[in-house]
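R.M. (postdoc): so does anyone remember the format we settled on? I'll just put the structure tokens first.
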């Protein structure tokens, strides 16, 4: 068992621990919301207190949080109506959909689905989940505009028919509804508490039905979850999980090697040798269902990136296959918006736009580009390898005559609308082509719509709508193929590569990473064998 105890409850510390200095203040300062059940205060048992170091922690963990680092935490707080079983494939990429908070479902008309709701499920505040809570969660997420996934374009309403059934009505036939309900869009939270405290406070002190419950956050330091022993599923296998904010890669690695941390995240694959060479630790790496990208602010009509020829020239002159190979130790490839998780819809043979510097020069000449500066904003240290990729990219762009400048900022709060482009990433979101590109860039409420200037091009919207509403496989797949072609023509963003998440892990901790940023510590996916 790891000898470093949970610092919220007292215990010992490794020499030189970065959190030792704040332990006394932390013991005095941390307060827990009165709505948490008494099990949050239970004494430590013989289950492990897991400690995870990652570059940052997030301030809000509301029910539809979409930050990569917040999602790692929120996956333990909430359950979904439908469950995606990542373990249905041995590599953690499974996409089988199974009962979750809904025990079964039935499509009763082209636009109506009835979900039978699991009975006796407890929220972290001790109240029992009802069908009214389920209906509220769906309606609130899709309807009021306060959450990132509001106004999805498909959900018309959710109604509690009785104490056992919720009927979800869509605005049009939605072939991806079950996939949708297996994501953050299907998470359930208590109506009474949410309405009492409001969305901002809820994000700071969230309540769900998941196996671990919120137990406090110290800004800039850490946050903690504790076992929710009234969980409706198997008993949570860990006593607590503490996520520590450790920005420096070297500090995360050192902490793992000394036993201060059990898992460390976000390691560049070319810096993992100390972990590989240590008898007690190992690297567990997986390419995740995400794409790193440079997103253009196309709406700035007086700037070079407003011209699609210049955007495409920037993509063609960037050797993304080389970047993927060198930065990620050969574990991934150049990026596209096509993911294997789309199953039969996936089109891996299409590949990414080629490396074509001569074609890039021709496009720049045709556009009349004359060396105007193009500024890319990057949050330093947020995306693994991003700064290194952009530094290499500057030289590649220079070779074709592009004048690109990097603007490195400290955090997302500084991002604003400055610059001509910015480093970002996007997820697959759903096991359906209605996720990913269309979900972010086209559907109503998409979080990338702002980069078009608010509205996607008409052809883009038409193709995405055909994917979202299509009633047969051939129609949807053709629309998806055409949308990928249109993306390569318009180049709203340069898709760099599918990033690799390399975790450093204690060898005697049996835990499997998934092909997403979620970290699952439910029974069946974690066991401490120390």
């Amino acid at each position: 068992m790891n000898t470093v105890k949970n610092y919220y409850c007292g215990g010992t510390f490794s020499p030189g621990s970065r959190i030792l200095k704040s332990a006394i203040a932390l013991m005095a300062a941390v307060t827990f919301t009165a709505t948490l059940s008494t099990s949050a205060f239970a004494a430590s048992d013989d289950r492990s207190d897991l400690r995870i170091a990652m570059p940052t922690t997030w301030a809000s963990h509301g029910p539809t949080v979409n930050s990569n680092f917040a999602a790692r935490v929120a996956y333990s707080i909430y359950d979904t109506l439908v469950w995606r079983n990542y373990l249905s494939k041995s590599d953690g990429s499974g996409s089988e959909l199974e009962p979750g908070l809904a025990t079964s479902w039935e499509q009763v008309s082209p636009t109506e689905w009835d979900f039978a709701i699991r009975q006796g499920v407890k929220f972290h505040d001790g109240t029992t989940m009802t069908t009214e809570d389920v209906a509220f969660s769906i309606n609130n997420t899709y309807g009021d505009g306060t959450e990132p996934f509001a106004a999805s374009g498909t959900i018309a309403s959710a109604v509690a028919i009785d104490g056992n059934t919720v009927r979800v009505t869509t605005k049009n036939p939605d072939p991806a509804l079950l996939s949708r309900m297996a994501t953050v869009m299907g998470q359930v939270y208590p109506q009474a508490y949410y309405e009492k405290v409001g969305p901002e406070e809820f994000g700071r002190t969230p309540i769900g039905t998941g196996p671990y419950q919120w137990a406090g956050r110290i800004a800039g330091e850490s946050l903690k979850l504790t076992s929710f022993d009234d969980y409706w599923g198997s008993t949570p296998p860990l006593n607590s999980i503490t996520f520590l904010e450790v920005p420096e890669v070297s500090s995360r690695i050192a902490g793992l090697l000394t036993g201060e941390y059990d898992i460390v995240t976000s390691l560049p694959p070319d810096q993992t040798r100390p972990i590989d060479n240590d008898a007690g630790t190992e690297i567990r790496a997986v390419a995740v269902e995400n794409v790193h990208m440079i997103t253009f602010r196309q709406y700035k009509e007086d700037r070079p990136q407003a011209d699609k020829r210049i955007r495409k020239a920037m993509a063609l002159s960037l050797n993304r296959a080389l970047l993927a190979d060198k930065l990620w130790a050969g574990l991934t490839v150049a990026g596209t918006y096509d993911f294997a998780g789309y199953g039969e819809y996936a089109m891996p043979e299409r590949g990414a736009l080629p490396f074509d510097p001569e074609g890039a020069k021709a496009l720049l000449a045709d556009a009349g580009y004359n060396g105007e500066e193009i500024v890319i904003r990057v949050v330093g240290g947020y995306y693994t390898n991003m700064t290194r990729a952009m530094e290499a990219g500057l030289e590649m762009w220079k070779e074709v005559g592009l004048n690109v400048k990097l603007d490195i900022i400290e955090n997302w709060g500084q991002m604003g609308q400055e610059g001509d482009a910015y480093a970002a990433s996007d997820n697959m979101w759903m096991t359906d082509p209605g996720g990913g590109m269309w979900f972010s860039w086209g559907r109503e409420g998409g979080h990338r719509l702002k980069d078009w200037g608010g509205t996607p091009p008409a052809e883009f919207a038409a193709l995405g709508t055909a994917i979202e509403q299509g009633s047969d496989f051939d129609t949807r797949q053709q629309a998806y193929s055409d949308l990928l072609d249109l993306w390569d023509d318009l180049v709203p963003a340069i898709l760099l590569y599918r990033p690799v998440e390399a975790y450093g892990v204690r060898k005697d901790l049996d835990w499997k990473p998934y092909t997403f940023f979620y970290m699952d510590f439910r029974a069946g996916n974690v066991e401490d064998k120390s």
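R.M.: ...and that's the designed sequence above, right after the tokens. Also worth knowing: The chain has a mean pLDDT of 88. The CA atoms of residues 377 and 407 lie 5 Å apart.
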